[in-house]
Design goal:
single chain, three-stranded antiparallel beta sheet, alpha+beta, 95 residues
């Protein structure tokens, strides 16, 4: 049984993945073999940088992705690619 703190963390992950935009961001990053610049993600999704940046903040807060700076750009990577892919696969099986 999960305690209250664990429930909050699990809920934050489900909430972060509950947005189609954030799920698409995770999917884009998982399909590449290297981290992606936020600007490249915004261009690929045909959305403005600020919108993508806010979604990435939610994903980072839930500990699904990491963000680091390269020069003046911010780059994101998935913290646990295999676990995230497995979660998506499980949900697909449920559906």
């Amino acid at each position: 049984m999960l305690n209250e703190q664990q429930l909050c963390k699990v809920s934050a992950v489900f909430s972060a993945l509950g947005s189609p935009t954030r799920l698409k961001i995770v999917e884009l990053v998982s399909e590449t073999e290297r981290p992606l610049h936020i600007k490249a993600i915004a261009q690929a999704m045909k959305k403005d940088y600020a919108t993508i940046y806010r979604h990435i903040g939610v994903l980072e807060k839930s500990r699904l992705i990491g963000v680091y700076e390269v020069g003046r750009s911010r780059v994101i990577y998935l913290k646990n690619v295999n676990a995230i892919k497995k979660c998506v696969q499980i949900v697909q099986e449920i559906l």
